[in-house]
Write a structure and sequence with these properties.
The chain is built from no helices and five strands. With 85 residues, the chain is mainly β. The protein has one domain. Strands 4-3-2-1-5 form a five-stranded antiparallel beta sheet, with no helix packed on it. Pfam families: DUF6354 (PF19881). This is DUF6354 family protein. It comes from Actinacidiphila polyblastidii. InterPro entries: DUF6354 (IPR045934).
């Protein structure tokens, strides 16, 4: 069983999918089923994806190979197991 964390605006999440290595998103808003997130970092910056907003199902915000892991809480503190940079 995987743990779940409440998804809240201003949190930073990292994409675990190896095809999106280095991609981080900031949560803009959350509704009952989805979050609107803005890309804040991406290894492949040449793709022009930084600043792009996308809608992500809340079910993907769990630490699986194709999910997301929490990097930073809304108040700016690093998530458990994360270091500040």
């Amino acid at each position: 069983m995987t743990s779940t964390t409440a998804v809240e605006p201003d949190q930073i999440w990292a994409d675990n999918d190896p095809r999106s290595s280095g991609r981080k998103v900031r949560i803009v808003s959350v509704d009952a089923t989805h979050a609107v997130a803005e890309v804040v970092a991406h290894r492949a910056v040449s793709t022009g994806s930084v600043g792009r907003q996308t809608r992500i199902s809340l079910g993907r915000f769990r630490p699986t190979s194709t999910g997301y892991r929490l990097v930073q809480h809304a108040d700016g503190t690093p998530a458990e197991g994360q270091t500040t940079r």
